[in-house]
Write a structure and sequence with these properties.
Strand order of the largest sheet: 10-16-8-9-15-13-14-12-11
Order of helices and strands: EEEEEEEHEEHEEEHEEEHHHE
Shape: elongated
Helix content: 10-25%
Number of helices: 6
Radius of gyration: 23 Å
Length: 301
């Protein structure tokens, strides 16, 4: 099936029909447009071919990858060889999900102080998880009392060997490192999003481990480890930490390469998780070779 798109957006304003009035005068310099964006139409599905007219009047035929959805914005870029390719894709904004009535509001939850956090981390039911990375082992104390549902999913993912050869594709200096995206279809299709845990006043500080989420009840398999303290976070149920990196492993955490910056969806120039999910680790190794990886993970009581 082929879907023909009528409008695209180039660098600046929307393109218009070419006409004699819009043609440059003889000898007049023409600024070449090297990128443009368009929105994936509602009737597009995986496997269809999008017919898009580029700003240089080249008719593009773009097979729609399985991880691109209607409403997403695709940006095309013209390479040095004159050929157009996908630069990145921005996800459509997700409509806000109504909060669960039983969940306490941030104003009703008092954030725990250092003494209480240390007590939590020393409880008998706390278990140890280890992420073996290309920079060394990162040990984590996993605290079920902070996030029962989240910790259960984390340990399940480790048991299933989900965290094997995963690129740390998002690594922002002073903010966080993030991993969990794979193009392995068997892993991607296995896990549904889990329900949020209740707020328990766990602050987001250096070494805290949380699931990445786009809103209520969207945690699945991608993890974030924070590189600093962020008092504005941890106030939504889906931001509740599941554990914390041990003091002995902070040096390894801080050594993770952060030179590429944030992902394109957040305004950066680092690895694009959508391309990673489409192309696999080869995309990272070729275009972002200094990126670190989580090679394996394990846990024990």
């Amino acid at each position: 099936k082929i879907i023909r798109l009528k409008e695209v957006r180039s660098a600046g304003e929307a393109s218009e029909d070419s006409s004699a009035a819009g043609m440059p005068e003889e000898g007049e310099a023409v600024e070449e447009v090297l990128s443009f964006s368009f929105e994936i139409p509602e009737n597009a599905a995986a496997g269809v071919t999008l017919k898009v007219m580029a700003p240089d009047s080249v008719q593009l035929h773009i097979p729609l990858p399985s991880n691109i959805f209607p409403g997403d914005t695709m940006t095309m870029q013209k390479g040095a060889d004159g050929k157009w390719g996908i630069k990145h894709v921005a996800r459509a904004e997700v409509a806000p999900v109504a909060a669960i009535p039983a969940a306490p509001s941030p104003s009703e939850v008092e954030m725990r102080g250092p003494a209480q956090l240390e007590k939590d981390l020393s409880q008998a039911h706390v278990c140890k998880a280890t992420l073996n990375t290309t920079k060394g082992a990162i040990n984590i104390r996993v605290v079920p009392s902070w996030a029962p549902t989240g910790t259960q999913r984390f340990l399940q993912l480790i048991t299933d060997k989900y965290y094997t050869d995963l690129a740390i594709y998002r690594a922002v200096p002073g903010f966080l490192v993030q991993f969990g995206v794979t193009n392995d279809a068997s892993r991607n299709s296995k896990y549904e999003a889990i329900l949020d845990d209740d707020l328990r006043g766990i602050p987001v500080e250096e070494g805290m481990v949380c699931f990445a989420a786009s809103g209520a009840n969207t945690r699945t398999s991608t993890l974030c480890i924070f590189l600093g303290s962020f008092p504005q976070l941890g106030k939504n149920p889906w931001e509740t930490p599941i554990g914390k990196v041990t003091d002995e492993s902070l040096a390894v955490l801080r050594s993770i390469y952060t030179g590429y910056g944030d992902m394109p969806q957040c305004g950066g120039t680092g690895p694009d998780p959508i391309q990673l999910e489409d192309k696999g680790n080869g995309y990272i190794l070729e275009e972002f070779p200094k990126s670190d990886f989580v090679e394996s993970a394990s846990w024990c009581m």
